[in-house]
Design a protein that fits this description.
83 residues; transmembrane; transmembrane helix
Length: 83
């Protein structure tokens, strides 16, 4: 779980830095479109992707641990005492 949190933390820091660098200096573009709306939509989409990525990584980690636990139990039952 610690690796998952570190990975998501680095991605979030990257997101914040890129958001600051990509902030539109002029709100209205020369063609009349609003740049701030697009900027906010991209930021929201990025946050949704980060949340989904964290959820998928945690789910994958739990499934791996469950499978490992089941294999250990199966190995215990499979061992036969020497006679």
């Amino acid at each position: 779980m610690k690796r998952i949190n570190i990975t998501i933390g680095f991605l979030f820091i990257y997101f914040v830095v890129m958001s600051v660098l990509g902030y539109p200096r002029e709100r209205i573009a020369p063609d009349g479109t609003d740049r701030l709306v697009t900027y906010l939509l991209v930021c929201a989409l990025e946050l949704v992707v980060l949340i989904l990525l964290r959820w998928v990584l945690i789910r994958r980690y739990k499934m791996r641990e469950r499978r490992r636990h089941d294999m250990e139990q199966y190995a215990r039952y499979d061992e036969k005492p020497d006679e």
